[in-house]
Write a structure and sequence with these properties.
alpha+beta, Arc Repressor Mutant, subunit A, 4-stranded antiparallel sheet, 13 strands, EC 2.7.1.160, tRNA 2'-phosphotransferase activity, RNA_2'-PTrans_N, 2'-phosphotransferase
Length: 343
């Protein structure tokens, strides 16, 4: 019996042919070009970063120079004291560990002991003032601030035990405070009437304001059935950027405070001492009669600010009560019919 010879398998490995020398040179050239490009890009980035840093430094220097040329006017001791009182009485009494009554009154001597108030130096800066001399605020200083405050933000009183108390008239963010205000109804909207005097009529510089005040007053003197149908407006002062947010959100809200603040007229008109900031550049006119008819509650503070918490459920004073919006120059920038005529 013959045996078969074992089979042998031969594996042939195919190897790629070496690329021609011309191909190697091309690859090498590409690598060199890529390295050069990467180096150039890195150099460009460093150059751009250096230029940006130089520009930023120049900008900061320019801003610093601008600030140096127009430094912010330092606050007087009276202004510092007024701001300290406003914060404590409107927002910070509880944080400061002070006992505050439901009507907003805080014992004055306790307020005077708070660091925020004690730190105010009532000695004005003068050349003759001794270096380091200080005087803390006292009751007389607070009384002076209360009387001199152009917006009549504070009230002071002395009880039967001759103890002095102080409160902010409005503007609270403390939910536990319920300062007594005059409820506004359809029957007492004459309380919104702007003050008017013969002396003002003789002042040519105020002719325009007086004419507007007279127009508003004529609307508020509700003596006939026809006049009772006329619109009565109050004004909320805000700013252009905030106005866009108000419009998109559907109306005004109290935000961190307990009320939305409105004024009886434009800032500076007779009888308008508070209710909006002087710098407001968007004035929202609100039909208060329409809102009251819909059940929205309004009150009038002792310093003439019209207050509302908004609608009971939503806390919103809706856009449907807005009659128009004016800019700081009296130009109408929004009306319900056209929605947005100039913005």
């Amino acid at each position: 019996m013959s045996s078969e010879a074992p089979l042998t398998t031969t594996t042939t490995v195919k190897t790629e042919a070496e690329p021609p020398s011309g191909v190697n040179l091309e690859r090498k050239a590409r690598k060199e070009a890529a390295k050069l490009l990467k180096a150039q890009q890195s150099a460009d980035k460093k150059k751009a970063a250096a230029a940006k840093a130089t520009t930023a430094s120049s900008s900061c220097s320019s801003k610093s120079t601008s600030k140096d040329k127009n430094p912010r006017k330092p606050q007087s001791p009276t202004e510092q004291l007024s701001r300290a009182l406003a914060y404590i009485l409107r927002h910070g009494a509880e944080k400061e560990g002070l006992s505050i009554r439901s009507n907003g009154y805080v014992q004055l001597d306790h307020v005077l002991e708070r660091p925020r108030v004690k730190s105010v130096n009532m000695l004005a800066e003068t050349e003759t003032q001794a270096k380091g001399a200080k005087r803390r605020p006292n009751v007389q200083d607070v009384q002076q601030v209360t009387q001199a405050n152009d917006k009549k933000r504070f009230q002071v009183m002395q009880d039967e035990d001759r103890v002095w108390w102080i409160r902010a008239v409005q503007g609270h963010s403390l939910k536990s405070i319920a300062v007594e205000h005059t409820p506004l109804t359809l029957n007492n909207l004459h309380l919104l009437k702007l003050n008017h005097s013969e002396k003002d009529d003789e002042d040519e510089d105020e002719d325009e304001d007086d004419a507007l005040a007279g127009e508003i007053n004529s609307k508020l003197n509700l003596t006939t059935d026809q006049e009772q149908q006329q619109m009565v407006e109050v004004i909320h002062g805000t700013y252009q950027a905030a106005w866009q947010e108000i419009l998109s959100s559907g109306g005004l809200k109290p935000m961190t405070r307990t009320h939305i603040h409105l004024a009886k007229g434009k800032f500076g008109q007779q009888g308008v001492i508070s209710g909006m900031r002087k710098s407001a550049n968007r004035l929202i006119f609100v039909d208060i009669k329409k809102a009251i008819n819909d059940g929205v509650r309004f009150e009038l503070s002792s310093n003439g600010v019209v207050l509302t918490p908004g609608a009971d459920e939503s806390g919103l004073l809706e856009v449907k009560y807005f009659t128009r919006v004016e800019d700081q120059n009296g130009q109408i920038v929004w009306q319900p019919s056209s929605q947005n005529p100039s913005e």
